[in-house]
Design brief:
This protein is α+β, with helices and mostly antiparallel strands. Helices cover 24% and strands 11% of the residues. The protein has one domain.
Length: 116
């Protein structure tokens, strides 16, 4: 069961990370239609404005609780588990000592300026 929960952790964490990255990319393209570059709540990713990035706000499959948010100021950049247990799958989680050490964080967006 633990291995199944670990697979689900990787799936959900990566889905949230990718949803945040798509949210940010859309903000860059549709400037002015979204008040913030990054989501302030995970629920923003489930709304159809301008599009839905996630079907639901996922729970942490390891704890059954909400994910811990990784924030910079008010902006949500990613999520991680609150569990201090040691992962079994060291290949997927690259030697992490705890689930809490595993971050599913959106890549930084670089503003390159206008295209010429």
């Amino acid at each position: 069961m633990k291995r199944d929960r670990e697979k689900e952790l990787a799936f959900r964490g990566n889905r949230i990370k990718e949803a945040i990255e798509r949210f940010v990319a859309d903000h860059e393209v549709l400037k002015g239609t979204s008040p913030n570059q990054y989501p302030l709540k995970l629920e923003e990713l489930t709304k159809k404005s301008p599009r839905r990035y996630l079907p639901v706000v996922y729970k942490d499959p390891i704890t059954g609780q909400d994910f811990e948010l990784i924030k910079v100021g008010k902006d949500i950049r990613g999520v991680r588990s609150t569990s201090l247990e040691t992962p079994m799958d060291q290949m997927t989680f690259k030697g992490a000592r705890t689930y809490h050490a595993i971050k599913f964080e959106a890549a930084q967006v670089k503003n390159c300026g206008p295209i010429r």
